[in-house]
Design a protein that fits this description.
With 77 residues, this protein is mainly alpha-helical. The chain has a domain of 39 residues. The chain is built from three helices and two strands, in the order ααββα. Strands 1-2 form a two-stranded antiparallel ribbon. Strand 1 and strand 2 form a beta hairpin.
């Protein structure tokens, strides 16, 4: 909010800002989260790719599931 007030040069009073304080009991969960992020953070791969003929081709398990689910809703009886 303060950034908006600054950008618009508003004379309104600025909002109070306090430092975030988390209970120490969450420290192990934060450390685990940091480790998991460093180990497993990779850009997601798209579940489908378009072939040279313009068809959708599944990539991996998620892609096969997406294509199978989509086929249920797009099949013409």
């Amino acid at each position: 909010m303060n950034g908006i007030l600054d950008a618009t040069r508003s004379p309104a009073p600025r909002c109070g800002v306090w430092k975030l304080q988390e209970p120490g009991i969450f420290a192990p969960a934060r450390a685990l989260d940091r480790l998991r992020w460093k180990l497993f953070h990779r850009p997601p791969k798209p579940p489908l790719r378009v072939t040279a003929r313009g068809e959708l081709e599944p990539v991996g398990l998620v892609g096969r599931l997406v294509k199978r689910r989509a086929a249920r809703y797009t099949a013409i009886p």
